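Task: sequence design from structure.
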């Protein structure tokens, strides 16, 4: 007798820009200065970057 598979809980994160919840496996992730930022897609990621996000532009850290 086969046992039915149990449903798997999917970890979801909120987009930094539009706050839409997306599965973490599908989220675009940018490592900002001291945290990770999650995005539902490239459009929200680009919007975040133009609003002051610095994921692609690492600068000197304090004390360096």
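Answer:
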């Amino acid at each position: 007798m086969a046992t039915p598979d149990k449903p798997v809980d999917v970890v979801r994160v909120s987009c930094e820009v539009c706050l839409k919840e997306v599965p973490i496996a599908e989220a675009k992730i940018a490592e900002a200065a001291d945290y990770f930022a999650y995005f539902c897609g490239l459009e929200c990621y680009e919007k975040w970057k133009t609003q002051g996000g610095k994921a692609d532009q690492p600068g000197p850290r304090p004390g360096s």
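The helical segments are 42-50.
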